[in-house]
Amino acid sequence: MGLIKIVVMVSTNIENALNKQIRIEAESSQIYLSMACWAESKGFEGVAEFMFAQADEEREHMLRLLKYLTERGGKAIISELSKPSTDYNSPKQMFEEVFEHEIFVSNSINELVSLTFEEKDFATHNFLQWYVAEQIEEESTARTILDKINLIGDDRSGFYLFDKDVRSMIAKPSAQ
Ligand code: OFO
């Protein structure tokens, strides 16, 4: 006789909030994919590679949420996504948008964590701690890249090294 797995289902409020976050992570992936295409079209190959890797990471974040929600008896919804920008004035403007976007995502994760307290859903609370740590790292990476861009200033030759440098910052896959 097989074992019966008993899970405590997520509440409707948590289910809706996780689905909202699934969409945000999927949109993050699209945004970074679009940035990768822009960087490639401008000859920033290292930046393009970095953004392609970021897009993959965001898709992983989306899948991780989706699988968790399903495991907890919820229904994951795949929704339509907003079209990302396709043009940027400069790498600086692009990374400023990355930074702002990561702050937006962090705020969204924080709201989700706060909802888990209201709903007394401590399993989801624990699950989300990985995202809290990940957001700190991503905000910090974006800030570091912006600092580098500010150091380069108008020195166009500096962008050659910058491009190589950003390639070396591609994140290793995070531990489960
Ligand atoms: Fe999903 O990690 Fe940032 O956005």
What is the 3D shape?
Answer: elongated
Uncertain runs: none
The secondary-structure element order is HHHHH
Please state the oligomeric state of the protein chains shown. Answer: single chain
What does this protein structure show overall?
The protein has 176 residues and is mostly helical. Helix content is 72%, strand content 0%. Helix 3 (91-118) packs antiparallel against helix 4 (122-152). The protein binds hydroxy diiron-OXO moiety. Hydroxy diiron-OXO moiety (OFO) binds next to helix 1, helix 2, helix 3 and helix 4.
Summarize the structure.
With 176 residues, the protein is an all-alpha fold.
Write the layout of secondary structure elements.
Elements: H1 12-41, H2 45-71, H3 91-118, H4 122-152, H5 158-167
Helix pairs in contact: 1-2, 1-3, 2-5, 3-4, 4-5
Q: What characteristics describe this protein?
A:
mainly alpha, 176 residues, 5 helices, binds hydroxy diiron-OXO moiety, 72% helix
